[in-house]
Design brief:
α1 runs parallel beside α3 (48-71), α1 packs antiparallel against α4 and α3 packs antiparallel against α4 (81-104). This protein has four helices and no strands. It is an all-alpha fold and 118 residues long. The chain has one domain.
């Protein structure tokens, strides 16, 4: 059964913001990494919940960047285009789900996330 933590509204909002800030990558270069990094670094010492969610978001964004870098050369021969589209769709869906779960105090494990930051 899902574990729901009793957290303050501020903790839940900052955890949610750690995930949602990844959408900055659609507007600014590397914003998908810089946004979660800033949120995580600014509040990681104040709350273990924000620390966990910030690391989770950052690991996922770094993983998606790595996967996209690996697929990008294949786009020139058209083989990589479906993979690139799948990566973007996975990123959007997972960030939305993670944001909702963080705001409710529920854990979410990103699929395909490499644990760069422990």
């Amino acid at each position: 059964m899902k574990e729901i933590r009793v957290l303050s509204e501020t903790e839940r909002n900052w955890a949610m913001l750690c995930h949602l800030s990844a959408f900055a990558g659609f507007f600014f270069p590397f914003g998908g990494i810089i946004g979660p990094l800033i949120c995580w670094l600014s509040r990681k010492d104040e709350s273990t919940w924000v620390n966990e969610n910030g690391k989770s978001s950052l690991n996922f964004q770094l993983s998606m960047l790595l996967y996209f870098v690996l697929v990008f050369p294949l786009c020139f021969i058209l083989v990589g285009i479906p993979f690139a589209v799948a990566i973007v769709c996975l990123k959007v869906v997972c960030v939305i789900i993670a944001s909702i779960r963080a705001s409710k105090g529920e854990e979410f494990k990103y699929p395909l996330a490499i644990p760069f930051i422990q």
